[in-house]
Write a structure and sequence with these properties.
Length: about 800
């Protein structure tokens, strides 16, 4: 015999309606006919409903052949309120009434059921119903229950783990647990457990996904006895987060469809037709309708007004557009099955596309309003995001349910299976800037290479068009939209596909999330960490508010950016800062000092080395042997390059045998070239790898006037290349030199002071040579490998919020 032991009616008061919807019968069919069709279609030999704390649904069908009355009882450990669900089978109305009177105490409930020899079992034993379940609760459950359920709404791995734990039990362990908890086992041979299986289906989409089979049973009484004797076999498969989310969508849709009688409009709405197929399966009685609906929609969309669209409008519009343009989705509307993809996978793909377009619309709106400094509209738009969150909510819930079981699963493996090895660290590092040319991106690329070389479980997650999707240690996602910044044409923002990334992080089993940037990828990292209950840390690389002010000249924009930046980093469990000054700035702005941790970066002293000095500039650019002042970095005003321009013009009046070399690109490039016209300055554009290393080593002095950098990789690279450096007294770079020994620190924004320092080093060969040697020696104590390993070791101490 085969029976689904855990099946819910859509409404406990009206199970016949649920059955109608599942098998596509008109309401005129009688209950016996519905049951006949159901059992014939699903291959079941018996039928029951296990609604929560009610048997009203079962009473409607109790007179039918093969039906028996059951319920799912909510009970609690009285000592701390930990909630359990107990499946109780083959009962009557009197027993149900007794159960409801005593059910709040699990010890009373189990005593009553055993005293009357009523078949029962613990539902989803490893699922923390109200987040209170611990290892000790599970040990008590082992003493109280004989029958354990493999649950169709839990993942396959958890059902396997439960089976392994139950198989590991023996007499000695049960005696140990009984003594520990002072609980007498409630059944004979309590180390031998029985297994049942049920779908735990609430949405009529996964009936018998898991079910119980008793091969030797020929009647219900024999089936029940097989359960008692442990002679049953669980069949079917567990769920994925996609399965659970699909069911949650179905439950909500079926509820509102019934409440608002949406069937009245079944023939006139493309979206409604599609939702019926995906979330309330039935048979089509209107062949060819989809073509007419697509034609009507095609005419109407040309007149669609988008000026004041809400998120709900965008969701509907994008959904209709996808259905009309996608052959597979149109086939669904026609009532045809598409091979090679499960319904939940198809629904996930549809939801991802719709939510991504809605998220893109919402994000662009927020960014436009931020650039305009319109605070009130920003808050209004943020409030409208609730509709989008509601649409995506079932996936947030389902992935959250699967993500929160990890600690309990580890505890079970250690306690019962002897698997006590420490959890391997596996980090998903989110960044908006992996493929850019800047210090942050170069550091991340170096980390990825080092992690791959050392066999570390580190994956860089980024989002960029036209990039490889699966490099070693890198996972690139295609953006759903691209947002250009008018103030900075070379910088683009890419909106990532959130649900796709959520699924990827879940399936890969990452243990930690790290955010390198607070942009779209950073927001995705934060959301995924919260949903999956993973620890999240962030690195504060860049003074974004100050950059925003430099680029826009708007104090309001800087203030808005500060509020966002502080809110974002305050969500982190730990904030890594590259300099003490940067950390103090965050603390002064209100960030908890306990979260802030200094993490100075390191430098590759093999790549950046004085031995690479080789006349690079003469060969490449035809420059003579005059002293060369070098700047490497983004060519943008926020780097205080106008100060460098003024300082270099001043010094060349008295020291004409100097050469300024500018390596990089950026929005200030053309203006800087114009301002330096007539003085010895050369612009190389971007340099990489060997060219960059040779450019460093072949120069004489490194100049970096920025007051906004939190660290400045180029400072360490220059010193490793044997260059004395000149930096400002503001920001992180000054913490990466030894003033007077490896370089000079000058007042930020002061062109006269900068020119004086440049003249001092360029005019004193001996001092410049001594500083170069000391700079190289200092850099060797700041190796990249040592810095990266320090941070990697810190991940093990992070806990989820």
């Amino acid at each position: 015999m085969k029976i689904d032991m855990h099946l819910h009616s859509k409404h406990s008061k009206r199970p016949s309606q649920w059955v109608l919807q599942k098998i596509g019968c008109p309401e005129s069919f009688s209950p016996p006919e519905m049951l006949r069709r159901l059992t014939a279609r699903l291959g079941m030999d018996g039928f029951t409903l296990t609604d929560h704390n009610t048997i009203d649904g079962c009473l409607e069908i109790a007179h039918l052949p093969g039906a028996f009355i059951s319920e799912e009882v909510t009970t609690y450990f009285p000592e701390d309120g930990c909630k359990l669900h107990v499946l109780v089978y083959n009962i009557n109305e009197k027993i149900h009434g007794d159960i409801q009177r005593i059910r709040r105490n699990v010890y009373d409930l189990v005593g009553y059921l055993n005293g009357r020899d009523i078949l029962h079992g613990i539902a989803h034993p490893l699922y923390a119903v109200n987040n209170l379940l611990t290892l000790e609760h599970f040990e008590k459950i082992l003493l109280l229950f004989k029958v354990f359920e493999h649950n169709g709404a839990r993942n396959h791995g958890q059902n396997q783990l439960l089976q392994a734990v139950l198989d590991s039990l023996d007499r000695e362990l049960i005696v140990e647990l009984a003594d520990k908890h002072n609980i007498e086992p409630t059944h004979l041979e309590p180390w031998n457990k029985s297994i049942i299986a049920g779908s735990d289906d609430h949405g009529s989409l996964n009936v018998t996904r898991m079910h119980t089979e008793a091969p030797m049973a020929a009647s219900l009484s024999q089936f029940f006895e097989a359960v008692r004797q442990g002679q049953t076999e669980p069949r079917g498969e567990g769920s994925t987060p996609e399965t659970i989310a699909h069911n949650l969508y179905a439950i909500a849709y079926q509820y509102y469809a019934n409440r608002f009688r949406l069937d009245r409009y079944a023939g006139g709405d493309l979206m409604k037709r599609f939702l019926d197929r995906m979330l309330r399966p039935g048979e089509s009685n209107t062949p060819g309708l989809v073509e007419r609906l697509i034609g009507v929609w095609g005419q109407a969309k040309r007149h669609y007004r988008r000026r004041n669209e809400k998120i709900t409008d965008v969701i509907r519009r994008e959904g209709e557009r996808l259905i009309s343009q996608n052959d597979d989705l149109r086939e669904i509307v026609r009532g045809r099955k598409i091979p090679g993809e499960t319904p939940e996978q198809r629904w996930f793909r549809f939801s991802e596309r719709v939510s991504s377009q809605a998220l893109s619309h919402f994000g662009k709106k927020i960014l436009d309003q931020t650039r305009q400094g319109n605070i009130f509209k920003i808050f209004n738009s943020i409030g409208g995001a609730g509709s989008l969150a509601l649409f995506m909510g079932p996936y947030f819930i389902s992935y959250g349910l699967f993500g929160r079981d990890k600690a309990m699963n580890r505890a079970l493996r250690g306690r019962f299976l002897g698997q006590t090895e420490p959890e391997e660290i596996k980090v998903a590092h989110f960044t908006d800037t992996f493929y850019d040319v800047n210090g942050v991106a170069l550091t991340l690329q170096q980390q990825a290479r080092h992690a791959a070389k050392q066999g570390m479980e580190l994956t860089m997650l980024t989002c960029s068009p036209d990039k490889p999707a699966g490099e070693q240690c890198v996972k690139n996602f295609d953006p759903v939209s691209i947002y250009e910044l008018p103030e900075y044409e070379q910088q683009k923002l890419y909106m990532p596909p959130f649900l796709t990334m959520l699924n990827y992080v879940f399936e890969q089993g990452f243990t930690h999330i790290h955010s390198a940037t607070p942009g779209f990828m950073g927001l995705a990292a934060l959301g995924i960490a919260r949903i999956l209950q993973l620890p999240i840390s962030g690195t504060y690389h860049t003074q974004i508010p100050q950059y925003a002010h430099y680029l826009t000249g708007d104090q309001t924009i800087e203030e808005i950016t500060w509020r966002y930046t502080l809110w974002y980093y305050d969500q982190m469990n730990r904030i890594y800062v590259p300099s003490e000054e940067t950390g103090q700035e965050l603390i002064d702005k209100g960030i908890d000092p306990a979260k802030v941790m200094l993490y100075p970066r390191g430098v590759n002293t093999e790549q950046f080395n004085p031995a690479r000095r080789n006349g690079f500039y003469k060969v490449r650019y035809g420059l003579d042997d005059r002293l060369k002042l070098l700047y490497v970095g983004r060519i943008s005003k926020e780097k205080d390059l106008p100060v460098l321009v003024e300082a270099f013009k001043r010094i060349t009046r008295d020291m004409p045998r100097l050469q300024l070399v500018v390596v990089g690109d950026g929005p200030y490039l053309e203006q800087m070239q114009r301002e330096l016209r007539g003085v010895p300055a050369v612009f190389t554009g971007y340099l990489h790898d060997e060219d960059l290393a040779e450019a460093y080593a072949s120069a004489d002095v490194f100049v970096f006037p920025s007051t906004t950098d939190t660290f400045g990789n180029v400072i360490l690279e220059a010193q490793a290349s044997g260059l004395p450096v000149i930096v400002s007294d503001q920001g992180g770079p000054r913490e990466n030199i030894i003033d007077g020994q490896t370089g000079l620190i000058v007042p930020g924004g002061d062109a006269i002071a900068l020119a004086r320092a440049m003249a001092e080093l360029c005019g004193n060969h001996q001092r410049r040579k001594a500083m170069a040697a000391t700079a190289r020696e200092y850099s060797q104590s700041r190796s990249f490998e040592a810095a990266f390993m320090r941070q990697w070791d810190l991940y093990s101490s992070e806990k989820a919020a």
